[in-house]
Design a protein that fits this description.
By secondary structure, the chain is of the alpha/beta class. The protein has 14 helices and twelve strands. The chain has an eight-stranded parallel β-sheet. Strands 1-12 form a two-stranded antiparallel ribbon. The protein is globular, with a radius of gyration of 20 Å. The structure holds flavin mononucleotide (FMN). Flavin mononucleotide binds at residues 27-28, 30, 41, 79-83, 108, 110, 128, 156, 254, 276, 278-279, 281, 309-312, 331-334.
C-alpha cells in the first residue's frame, strides 16, 4: 500500500485535490471575488521573516499553553468549517485527531456531524454559532450545546452573504437524490478512492445541517439552514451582549479585524476573540489577520484572549502569530486537506507537521517555551502592520 504520510500541508493539499470530486475540492478552496483576501492571508506570512540564533539554543522545548480557559498541548485550535462530503467520518475524525494531539475542536453550525457525536470524542468542544433563527432558537441551541458537553461558544460575525468567485463557485446540490447523483456521477466516478470510502459506510454524503435542527424536528438541508440565517436581521452589539449573557462559559467572537470592534467585544464580557477574515471567504479586500493582530493585542490582549485565524500552513506561521501577540491560532483548510488526504490520520499528520515546525522555530530562535516569543523574533517590512478603527 502506498505511504499515506505527507511531509507538508502543501503535499496534503495536492493529495486532497487529487482525491476529491472537483466540486468538493472547490468548496474547500472557497475564497471570495478576486481572491485578494484569500491570497493576502498567505502572502502576508511569506513577507515575515524570523531572526534566529546559532548557539545557546535550548535542548528542551515546550509549547503547551491555555486559551479560553482550556489547557492545550500547542497553540493551535481547529477552526469551525461547515463543509460536507470531504470524508465519511467528517468532523468526528477531525475531533478524534484533535483529542489525540491535545487541542480543542471548533464545530460549525453547518457541520455534517452532530455536536453530540463530536463531543463524545473531544472533551474540548467549542460550538460555533451564527446569529440565526431568533432568540428562542439560539437559546435552545445553547442549551443543546451545554447538554452535549460543549466547553465554549464561538460566535462568528463576519459573513455578508456575498460569495461569487472570479474562478467560479462549485455547484452544491440541495440534496443527493437519484437525479443529482446522475448529474454528479462523472465527477464522483473519476474519484474512485473518495467514492469507495463512502460506499464502504453504505451512505452517501449527507448534505444536512444536524446542528441547526429545531427541537423535535429533522435536521434541515444545508440550504434550508442557510436561508434561516440569511433572512435574520443582523445583530446589534446589544444583541451580542444578550447572547453572551445566555452562556455561562467561555464565549469567543470570531471575525474581528478592527480595534474599536475588539474593545466592544471585550466590554460585552467575551472571553476572547479571533482576528479573522473568514479565511478570505467573505468581503474581499479585508486585511489579512496577521497584519491587524498587533494593534488588537495592544488594545485588548491584557483583558481577553486574542487568537489569529487565517493563512496558517506551517509551524513557522504559528510562531510568527504567537510572537506578534496571539495566544494561539485557528486552522481551517490545512486540516480539511489532511482529512481529505487520509481521514483522521491525515488530520493528525497536519497537526504533527505544525508541532514539528513550531518546535524547529523555537530551537532556532533560542526559546525553551512558546511564551518566550516576542515581536523581536519577527522581521517585518515597514508599514506591514496596520491599525483599523482606533482614532
Ligand atoms: C470550506 C470552509 C468552510 C468554512 N465554514 C465556516 C463555518 O461554517 N463557520 C465559521 O465560523 N467559519 C467557517 N470557515 C472559516 C474558518 O473557520 C476559518 O476562519 C478559515 O478557514 C481560516 O483560514 P485558513 O483556511 O486559511 O486556515 C470556513 C472556511 C472554509 C475554508
Amino acid at each position: 500500500m502506498a505511504n499515506k504520510w505527507f511531509e507538508t500541508v502543501a503535499v496534503a493539499q495536492r493529495r486532497a485535490e487529487k482525491r476529491l470530486p472537483k466540486s468538493v475540492y472547490g468548496a474547500i478552496i472557497g475564497g471570495a471575488e478576486k481572491g485578494l483576501s484569500l491570497n493576502g492571508n498567505l502572502t502576508s506570512f511569506d513577507q515575515l521573516g524570523l531572526a534566529p540564533h546559532v548557539a545557546g539554543l535550548q535542548a528542551e522545548r515546550s509549547m503547551n499553553t491555555s486559551v479560553f480557559g482550556l489547557d492545550i498541548s500547542m497553540p493551535v485550535i481547529i477552526s469551525p468549517t461547515g463543509v460536507q462530503a470531504v470524508h465519511p467520518e467528517g468532523e468526528v475524525a477531525v475531533a478524534r485527531a484533535a483529542t489525540n494531539r491535545g487541542i480543542p475542536m471548533g464545530l460549525s453550525s453547518f457541520g455534517s456531524r452532530s455536536m453530540e457525536d463530536v463531543a463524545a470524542v473531544n472533551s474540548q468542544l467549542l460550538f460555533q454559532m451564527y446569529w440565526s433563527g431568533g432568540r428562542d432558537v439560539m437559546v435552545q441551541r445553547l442549551e443543546r450545546a451545554k447538554a452535549a458537553g460543549a466547553k465554549g461558544i464561538i460566535l462568528t460575525l463576519d459573513w455578508t452573504f456575498s460569495n461569487g468567485r472570479d474562478w467560479g463557485s462549485p455547484w452544491i446540490p440541495e440534496k443527493l437524490d437519484l437525479k443529482t447523483m446522475i448529474k454528479l456521477s462523472p465527477q464522483a466516478l473519476s474519484k474512485p478512492k473518495w467514492l469507495l470510502a463512502y460506499l464502504k459506510t453504505g451512505k452517501l454524503p449527507d448534505l444536512s445541517a444536524p446542528n441547526m435542527a429545531h427541537p423535535g424536528q429533522k435536521p434541515p438541508a444545508f440550504f434550508g439552514a442557510y436561508y434561516e440565517w440569511m433572512t435574520m436581521p443582523p445583530p446589534s452589539w446589544e444583541d451580542i451582549a444578550w447572547l453572551r449573557s445566555q452562556w455561562d462559559g467561555p464565549f469567543v467572537v470570531k471575525g474581528v479585524c478592527r480595534v474599536d470592534d475588539a474593545k466592544r467585544v471585550r466590554d460585552l464580557g467575551a472571553t476572547g476573540l479571533s482576528v479573522s477574515n473568514h479565511g478570505g471567504n467573505n468581503l474581499d479586500g479585508t486585511p489579512s489577520p496577521i497584519r491587524v493582530l498587533p494593534a488588537i493585542v495592544a488594545a485588548v490582549g491584557n483583558d481577553i484572549d486574542v487568537v489569529l485565524d487565517g493563512g496558517i500552513r506551517r509551524g513557522s506561521d504559528v510562531v510568527k502569530a504567537v510572537a506578534m501577540g496571539a495566544k494561539a491560532v485557528m486552522i481551517g483548510r490545512a486540516y480539511l486537506w489532511g482529512l481529505a488526504a487520509n481521514g483522521q490520520a491525515g488530520v493528525e499528520n497536519v497537526l504533527d507537521i505544525l508541532h514539528g515546525g513550531i518546535d524547529s522555530c523555537l530551537l532556532g530562535l533560542g526559546k525553551s517555551h512558546i511564551s518566550e516569543l516576542t515581536p523581536d523574533d519577527v522581521i517585518a517590512p515597514r508599514d506591514f502592520f496596520v491599525t483599523l478603527g482606533d482614532k
